[in-house]
Amino acid sequence: MGENVQGTFVSEKISKIRWQHRDFTEAKNFLTGSWDNPVNKITYWTFRTNYDEEPSPVVLSSYSFLGDVTELKFISKDFFVASSSLGSVRLLQVDEDTCAEFKEHMAWEFIHSFKTTDYASCTALSTFEQDIASVGEDGKLNLLTSIEKKPVRIIENADSCSIYCINFLKHNEVLTGNSRGHMKVWDLRNDRDIPASTFMLSDQVKTAATSITHHPTQRHIVVAGGDDGSLTVWDLRQNTYPMSQLNAHAKAVSEILFHQDRPDNLFTCSVSGELWHWNNAQSSKLKLDSADTHWLNTISANGKVNVTSLCASMHKPINSIDIDRSMLLFGCDNEAMDGSTSNNATTAASTATKSQVQFNPYTMLPYTPRYYELYKKRITLPVFEYRTDFVRLLSQHQCIVLVGETGSGKTTQIPQWCVEYSRSIGNKGVACTSPRRVAAMSVAQRVSEEMDVALGQEVGYSIRFEDCSSPRTVLKYMTDGMLLREGMSDPMLDAYQVILLDEAHERTLATDLLMGVLKEVIKQRPDLKLVIMSATLDAGKFQQYFDNAPLMNVPGRTHPVEIFYTPEPERDYLEAAIRTVIQIQMCEEIAGDLLLFLTGQEEIEEACKRIKREMDNLGPEVGELKCIPLYSTLPPNLQQRIFEPAPPTKPNGAIGRKVVVSTNIAETSLTIDGVVFVIDPGFAKQKVYNPRIRVESLLVSPISKASAQQRAGRAGRTRPGKCFRLYTEKAYKNEMQDNTYPEILRSNLGSVVLQLKKLGIDDLVHFDFMDPPAPETLMRALELLNYLAALDDDGNLTDLGAVMAEFPLDPQLAKMLIASCNHNCSNEILSITAMLSVIYKSKVSLYKFD
Q1: Would you state the CATH architecture of domain 561-743?
Q2: What positions does the domain Helicase ATP-binding occupy (predicted)?
Q3: Topology at the third CATH level for domain 369-554
Q4: What pTM does this model have?
Q5: In this model, does residue 105 exceed pLDDT 50?
Q6: Greater pLDDT, 367 or 493
Q7: Separation in Å, CA 816 to CA 755, 822, 825, 828, 838
Q8: CATH 3.40.50.300 occupies which residues in the chain?
Q9: How far are the Cα atoms of 593, 784, 812, 813, 825 from residue 818, in angstroms, in the given order?
Q10: Taking the domain 748-840, which CATH number applies?
């Protein structure tokens, strides 16, 4: 793993290195302290990123420090304490925003001293909020606070020898370790200067304790390092014997560090120049919050802990380590010149190095090359420059409306930032909904690659009939209907910290229901964040609905798109679409792929067959045209074909292209790179309810102007494009609606009422729909459900109704299926239900069903 380590050379040996932790994003600033110089320094650094290279540290400011820097500890965002080998402790401030000089707020001079000399080295510090505890070579334990100049308490004879390490276990309890291996627990509530308990680091030899740390969530689990390179683990509830002891390093352990978010990962460094990563996840079968969990128990010590070296041996001491989420820093005594002969201390290495290893915070493994490859693409997305603004809005507001054009990166990047926010304040997950299954699956696959995790683990998806997630999942993409179903069993959606509704402009039935439900949930859960994402600019309605929520606009990468209309209406749009595809392939001299919008699987498969047949008839001299279908029921592996490259240009100059023949899923849900030509017949399938026969069906109907604009925009993502609209300009201006009619206004409300009742919402008349259906329509639905025995005479959900709500069907079909079990005709009813669920009206075949 050494190839993932980058070193930056400075002019001093590094004794301590500490991240300046931030609230909602990964740390970028840190402190270093030096030693072994007449005048040492505390230096404030930041990582500056040149996106063609790895991040590199840059000095912001420095502070001259008398004596060796023996410890650095932040007590708040900008305030930290530093201890000196001359026996002093200083409270300093560094301002991230101004990067000005360090400010000294308080100094406890010579707080450690021998009787024969003016000072003794302050060997270690520990902090707990505003409280500070220091120990030193004089065997003294000092208790300080950042708001008082005078020490709160001094235990003069805490030990008869040097104390090398200290750690706050609780607000009123510290653990110290001395040069003879004595470990002492001090109850600070006790006025007597005696330890509450004492035990030995090793019962065989006098091994000095050089470092102590405790488990982040189980503070009674303590790990100590010795000057012989050993690691010892205790459960302080039963501290007579250690849980385990191992020979970890060849020489003294310098520091020990648990990962704060993933405490089954431990990091140790040593004077021998080793840096180890201990992963106990495989051997810890119990939950981390269990009172019986042993981090490194005897079974673990017998070889079941995964131990990894994080860098090649430095051959010089590694003195200090610190980790923040995915970035591990370590400071060394390395004296390598790195091939430089310059005498300038700011550019050449004379005696020291400081290095950083980037870890994936979800897997605790170094990032793969694929991560860096995708990261370089991510930072070029239009949405990326709005990251800071988005995180600020998310932290300040409960609901945000975000408008971002397709291709801006909102669907892949915004949820990842929400995960970072969620992890910074707790351990709940993030849900991102989409109206379509294919979008949920494909985006989850892409984001899992960008986060460098396995699909189904930290990133997953949930669609009807398939749940690709696990208890480790922190980001779940799902259809809006699946989140509604989760709400039936968890009305407050307590599993989630942030919920994102993507493609909200499509106004599907489930999306409208979700918005109404979530508007009530966020009133009862102030900690829940809601992000409404839309690809159209008509966001005012969403803002008004969510109580004037703040709006964030993210532009897309658009190029000019030339639009062509037909002079006369087309009698057969499928025939016209196929003819247009062939003409583009034959006549256009510009390279680029095609995107053809059709209404459903049957049309798409027919079009692909006819396009292939037409191209075969044109002979081998014509450029190859690869035809790729895309619709929601297509298997995932075949859906991924849309990202395949186009066929190569032939030696005679004939251009090879691919044509993606898709439903309206490619309007906003997916971005297909390389598309230059769009063919838009102007139709899509819409679900409509026929009140005469009380059956929902799919009707092929004209699209809206907003949909037409979205389709045209697919052609201008990477370069100027062309859109061929197979309808007249007059029809576009005069006949098309501005926006798609909300599905809730053209649907059978029986299933809507049933779902709302299942969600515990009884007052349907006053339920806050964005576009309320007519009251008489709701009453008709209530009457139907009462007739089907799903509701009783008082309008309450019956046991039968609760079962019916679990079926993703019209109430009549659900009741029919349930009743079929009592009449031994389930197979026949299943077939009839399946047929009734797919009947549609088609303008192509002019098939009539009424």
Answers
A1: 3-Layer(aba) Sandwich (3.40)
A2: 391-555
A3: Rossmann fold (3.40.50)
A4: 0.68
A5: yes
A6: 493
A7: 18, 10, 10, 11, 17
A8: 369-554, 561-743
A9: 49, 17, 10, 9, 10
A10: 1.20.120.1080
